[in-house]
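Hi Y.,

Following your request, here is the sequence exactly as I used it, all 257 residues.
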Amino acid sequence: MPLQIAMAFAVAVTAMLSALPTVCKAQERGNAQSEQSQSLRARGSGSHSLPPVGRYVSESGEGFTLDRSGQRPLLRFDRRDETWVLRPTVAVRGDVIYRNDAGQQVLRMSPGGGVTVYTSRAPGGSPASLVGPAENLSLPLLGPAQLWQLMARRSAMISEATGRLISINLDGERSEALCVEALIVTTDAVIRMARSPSTRPHLSRLRTIVITEGRRSSVTFAGGVLTVELDPDQGMAGRPSSARVMHALMTAPSRPQ
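Below is the corresponding structure, written out as C-alpha cells. Let me know if you'd prefer a different format.
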C-alpha cells in the first residue's frame, strides 16, 4: 500500500508539472488581454485628456490654438486674425470632425487624442501635436478712436489691393467687439481674393462693405455692396467666416448685359 500511494503521488506530481506550462501560458494570455484592454480604454479616453485650450503644431509646420472651453470649439492659426468657429460631428470609428460654417473640414480628432488639421498647405490633412498651453480665444475690444482708425486702415488696405476705393460702413450697437471681428475677417477675405489671379475678377463690382447686426448670420453681395449680417445673440458663432464671405463674392450672379 505505501508503494502504491507513492506511485500514485508521483503520477499526480508529474501530471501537474506537465500541465504547468499550459497554465502559465493561459495566465500570460489573460494578462496580455487585460493590458490590451486597459491600453484601449486609455486610448479611448485620450481626447478627453487634452486640455480645454492648447497650442498645437502640425507636421506641415502650421501652428494653431484650439479652444474647447466654451459652447463652440474655436481655432485660430498663428499669425492670423480670424478665429474659426467649429461645428463637431461624429464620424466612423468614433472620430470627431470639426467643420467651419461653410462646411469645410478643418480638424479631425480621434478617440485616442490624435489631431489632424486640414489647410491649403496640407489639404489631405497633417498630424498635429500639443506643444503647450494657450490663452482663451476672445473677441477684440477697441475704443471709439481705435475703431475709427481700424476702419480707415482696413479701407485703405482693400482699396490698395483692388486698385480702387472701397468704402466700409459699420452699423452695430449690441456687440461692437463682434463687429470688429467681422470687419477684420471680411476685409482679410477680400484682400486674399485680390491677391489671387483666379479670384480677383470676382471683385470687379465690389464698391462697398457693410457690417450690420441682425437676427441671423448671413452674407449677401448685390449691386456692388457686400453685406455681412451678424447675430450678436450667438456670440462668435453669429459672425460669418471668411470662407462664407468668399463664397458669396464668387457665386453672385453676373451683372446682366
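The first helix runs from residue 2 to 44.

Thanks again,
Q.
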